[in-house]
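Exercise 3.2. Students should predict the tertiary structure of the chain below and write it as structure tokens, then compare their answer with the key that follows.

Predict this chain's 3D structure.
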Amino acid sequence: MKMSSKSWGVQDVETKATSDRQEEAVKTSTGDSPRLAEIRIRAYEIYMERGGQPGHDVDDWIQAERELESKVRSNS
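Answer key:
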């Protein structure tokens, strides 16, 4: 079977999946503050950067909170 030159590589699929997850996180955060949606997205990015290993969700969330809080302070 011949592969098309337009077929997606692994990185393309991961990028699309990450983008889809981020959009979904924002959509499901109805009623949440924008800050919670930002934390949720950043925590997911941290999870993906770690290779998607489960079991560190609280650590990822805390790291995301700290990073975003630091960003807010530096912009003040």
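Discussion points: The chain has three helices and no strands. Helices lie at 10-27, 34-49, 57-75.
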